[in-house]
Amino acid sequence: MESATEELCHWISNLKLADIPPEQVTRAKYLVLDGLACALIGAQLPWSQDAVHGVLSMEAGGACEIIGWERRIGPLSAALLNSTFIQGFELDDYHRDAPIHSNAIVLPILLAVLEHNGSAAEETPYQSPTGAEFLLAAIAGYETGPRVGLGVYGVEVLSRGWHSGAIFGPAAAAAAATKLLGLSATQTEEAMGMACTQAGGLMAAQYESNVKRMQHGFAARNGLFAALMARSGYTGIKRVLERPYGGFLSTFSLGNGREPRYRPERVVEALGSSWEMDRIVVKPYASMAATHSTIDGLIALQVRHPGEMKDVNRIRRITIEMSEPAFKKGGWKPEKPLTPTGAQMTAVYAAAMQLLDGQVQPAQFAPAQLERVEVWELMERIVCVHNPALDTYQQRIHVEIGLDDETVALTTLTQFVDAPRGNKIPLSNEEILDKWRVVTAGVITAHRRAAIEEIVLNLDTEQDVRPLAELLYGRTEDIFS
């Protein structure tokens, strides 16, 4: 019998676009568009500039573009940087059951393979992939990352302090790269073995470091490295997912208290008939996913009780009851100095922004916003607590409102949130298109935006995908400038 690793790798190698229902093919194109929006807006952010300058200081030039920079570098560094841009502003997708930011893994890999394969460094005959081949490789990556994550119970890995997407990401990167390279099932398994042994990432990166934005980039780079090495004949770990000693699932499930501890069968369950990309969530807000229920709950209260919620000075206390994963990741109390990274990772700051500005979008994380006195005063009255009864995506928000006279009884407004917007009911393709147009306004020209949009939404019929890469190459604007 095939192992789970072998079955997955055979599926990746043999997958054809005709095997995928038209609805999923169409959805994949909109997911690609959303990922490119995140890359373009993230390319010239201050921390992205630091990343580019650092990498360029130690890496020679190459054939692969740095999105939005009019610079080229080698494939591994290009994958690292372009992934860092996609993760640059917490606007990118996530999988609702096995948290991974799929586009931050998949798109940098495909662009790097596309351009590296046509470079002078390559000795093999080159034929530019079609848009359909590009899209098919993206779908292979979208499917693989979450499935590998579900083998270790998905979000449970996050609860134990691993940056889950950086753990599941190397496998997704290897899947996308081997598919676009046209490698055999055997070579794909070699790449998977080399990719999974490079998995790593600590969730403590969320508090004040820039490196949180780069950790999916490490995974993308490592998965691409594994695929290129497998193509050269280098061998990896066989049956890497289910090995009982030192295998991926057995090692990353240590200490989880589950029975069984890991589930290799979940990796290949309903493979080709149930699509994990249907559970990829597109974000409506520029903050970490665990903060979205908080934002949605406050929006609902602002709609239901506009008079009471308008004057934030009357708010005495806000209590946000959260699931364990959400509390561990986003329930912490901000302290000065607060960086944009930290602000995007805490529900307390997201709540303050929704109450003060009525939105949580990129503008709410500009440096000046992090110093606003009224933000810090309001955050002192917001507290997050873990409620075990809500241990899915559920949250409950209590807003206690009073008058200046403290002898008057408080009014408590309560809002229950079953799941954040876009989670159980995904954003529509039209809503994703609207997001693409809104977030790229001012970052690229309207003409360039329309040209990218035209290619991406017709990828399955494009004969050459290189024009898309050229459109991404041109310089972008810094949204904070």
From TrEMBL:
* Residues covered by the MmgE/PrpD C-terminal domain: 285-460
**Where does the source fall among the domains of life?**
Eukaryota
Recorded hits in Pfam families, A to Z, give:
MmgE_PrpD_C, MmgE_PrpD_N
- UniProt-recorded Gene Ontology molecular function terms: lyase activity
Gene3D superfamilies named among the record's database cross-references: 2-methylcitrate dehydratase PrpD
| MmgE/PrpD N-terminal domain ranges (all copies) | 6-255
Q: Which family is this sequence assigned to?
A: Belongs to the PrpD family.
Please give the name of this protein.
Answer: MmgE/PrpD family protein
The scientific name of the source species is Penicilliopsis zonata CBS 506.65
Which lineage do the record's taxonomy fields give for this organism?
Answer: Eukaryota, Fungi, Dikarya, Ascomycota, Pezizomycotina
